[in-house]
Amino acid sequence: MAAAPGLPLLLPPLLRAGLGRPRGGVLLSRVWMTRPTLAYAPIQERRLQACNIHTSPRSLAGSQSASLHWTGERAVSVLLLGLLPAAYLYPGPAIDYSLAATLTLHGHWGLGQVVTDYVHGETSIKVANTGLYLLSAVTFAGLCYFNYHDVGICKAVAMLWSL
């Protein structure tokens, strides 16, 4: 691709660094992902026009599960923001078990994202996910055991603050 004289002066620094050029490869092909592209006006006008292209074709964007999962994560986070003051103001078994469930779910989803981002290979992913489910089950069971047989989460945090 030959550039017209004077055109490199018009390009933003990211394009001059090579980030605006199309890349090849299986993962960046048009089947998997479409990238935003830049269309150049004639040299006489010396304008750069940007055309937005959606990042996923409509034929591949049929599922709403990722959107619902994201909404669920945000709902649990907001619920935790409300439970923390409620645990301080109104400690009791209902708040203790609600904290046990929401803290476990929040931690499970957070560590699930770590597994998704950093664990590679089919067997490694299966082992990591099994370990994650086991850790989440043990965490929830341990918190419920602590709530039933000991002072509970709210009272334990209050005792720590009183030290």
From TrEMBL:
InterPro entries assigned: CybS (IPR007992), SQR/QFR_C/D (IPR034804)
PANTHER family: SUCCINATE DEHYDROGENASE (PTHR13337), SUCCINATE DEHYDROGENASE [UBIQUINONE] CYTOCHROME B SMALL SUBUNIT, MITOCHONDRIAL (PTHR13337:SF2)
UniProt-annotated location(s): Mitochondrion inner membrane
Entry protein name: Succinate dehydrogenase [ubiquinone] cytochrome b small subunit
Topological type in the membrane: Multi-pass membrane protein
One family name in Pfam for this protein: CybS
Subunit text: Component of complex II composed of four subunits: the flavoprotein (FP) SDHA, iron-sulfur protein (IP) SDHB, and a cytochrome b560 composed of SDHC and SDHD.
Residues annotated for a ubiquinone binding in this entry: Y118
Biological process (GO), any one: tricarboxylic acid cycle
Protein origin, superkingdom: Eukaryota
Binding site for heme b: H106
Primary role: Membrane-anchoring subunit of succinate dehydrogenase (SDH) that is involved in complex II of the mitochondrial electron transport chain and is responsible for transferring electrons from succinate to ubiquinone (coenzyme Q). SDH also oxidizes malate to the non-canonical enol form of oxaloacetate, enol-oxaloacetate. Enol-oxaloacetate, which is a potent inhibitor of the succinate dehydrogenase activity, is further isomerized into keto-oxaloacetate.
Pathway entry: Carbohydrate metabolism; tricarboxylic acid cycle
Keywords: Electron transport, Heme, Iron, Membrane, Metal-binding, Mitochondrion, Mitochondrion inner membrane, Transit peptide, Transmembrane, Transmembrane helix, Transport, Tricarboxylic acid cycle
One Gene Ontology MF term: metal ion binding
Organism from which the protein derives: Phrynocephalus forsythii
Family under the similarity heading: Belongs to the CybS family.
